């Protein structure tokens, strides 16, 4: 017999049913989701608008689970205080290093606020380009699709980037997370390698006939 995998599951809330947002949050919470992933887009860094600061504040008020805030915005230093004030210790803020002149300054504000600092890496961004930042962040969110829209296809060349990060994560003291096109086979392949958590969107969690509780139970029960 195989052994059960151990990993975190994050709900990509841009995929939720916004006609019943409170109900969605309650049901995901009760189903055992580990955290709520909040995608903030400004229509400039990516060609889309997603969740707002008010959406974030609403979800923060409805659950005691951590929030993972993914800022897909230009120059996040200009607005980072708005997000910091809306979060609690234990919540994470990811920025895209390419979107900021001095990303380490933005990350330092996150650290000083007692939040968890993270960077998100686009498919076209190399590990070498962000290597120095890996020494100050706690989480690295690797995009397996181009950022900005749900429902995209997995980009196979990103698999090598995951392997490179997993090889150095222990020495540099960060965890690796998966975002985009997260299907069951990706969890079965990469969780045993050391991926700490997976952002779940339309591939596995949202828009299905089954209840969230049953879906999450099945995902957690997968064996290698």
Short description:
The chain has helices spanning 21-31, 53-62, 80-84, 103-112, 158-172, 184-190, 212-220; strands at residues 8-12, 35-41, 67-72, 92-95, 116-121, 139-143, 175-179, 197-200. With 224 residues, the protein is of the alpha/beta class. The model has no long low-confidence stretch (mean pLDDT 91).
Describe this structure in words.
There is one protein chain. The protein has 224 residues and is of the alpha/beta class. It is built from 7 helices and 8 strands, in the order βαβαβαβαββαβαβα. α1 runs parallel beside α7. The N and C termini lie close together (9 Å).
**Oligomer type:** single chain
Any idea what the shape is? Answer: globular
Extended strand count: 8
- The helix count comes to 7
Largest sheet: 8 strands, parallel, barrel
Amino-to-carboxy terminus distance: 9 Å
Proportion of residues in β-strands: 15-25%
Helix content: 25-40%
Summed over residues and divided by their number, the pLDDT gives a mean of 91
Instruction: List unreliable stretches of 5+ residues.
Output: none
* C-alpha-based Rg, rounded: 16 Å
Describe how the helices and strands are arranged.
Elements: E1 8-12, H1 21-31, E2 35-41, H2 53-62, E3 67-72, H3 80-84, E4 92-95, H4 103-112, E5 116-121, E6 139-143, H5 158-172, E7 175-179, H6 184-190, E8 197-200, H7 212-220
Helix pairs in contact: 1-7
Entry keywords:
224 residues, alpha/beta, 8-stranded parallel β-barrel
């Amino acid at each position: 017999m195989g052994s059960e995998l151990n990993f975190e599951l994050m709900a990509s809330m841009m995929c939720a049913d916004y006609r019943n947002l409170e109900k969605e949050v309650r049901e995901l919470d009760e189903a055992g989701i580990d955290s709520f992933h909040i995608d903030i887009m400004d229509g400039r860094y990516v060609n889309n608008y997603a969740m707002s600061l008010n959406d974030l504040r609403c979800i923060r008020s409805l659950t005691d689970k951590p929030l993972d805030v993914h800022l897909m915005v230009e120059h996040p230093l200009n607005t980072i205080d708005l997000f910091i004030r809306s979060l609690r210790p234990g919540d994470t803020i990811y920025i895209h290093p390419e979107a900021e002149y001095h990303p380490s300054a933005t990350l330092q504000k996150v650290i000083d606020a007692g939040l968890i600092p993270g960077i998100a890496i686009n498919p076209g961004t190399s590990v070498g380009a962000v290597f120095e930042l890996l020494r100050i962040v706690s989480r690295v969110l690797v995009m397996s699709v181009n950022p900005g829209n749900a429902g995209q296809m997995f980009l196979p060349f990103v698999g090598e980037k995951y392997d490179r990060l997993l090889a150095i994560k222990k020495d540099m003291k960060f965890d690796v997370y998966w975002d985009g096109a997260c299907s069951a086979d990706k969890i079965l392949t990469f969780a045993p390698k050391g991926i700490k958590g997976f952002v779940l969107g339309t591939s596995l969690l949202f828009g299905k006939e089954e209840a969230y509780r049953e879906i999450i139970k099945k995902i957690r029960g997968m064996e290698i």
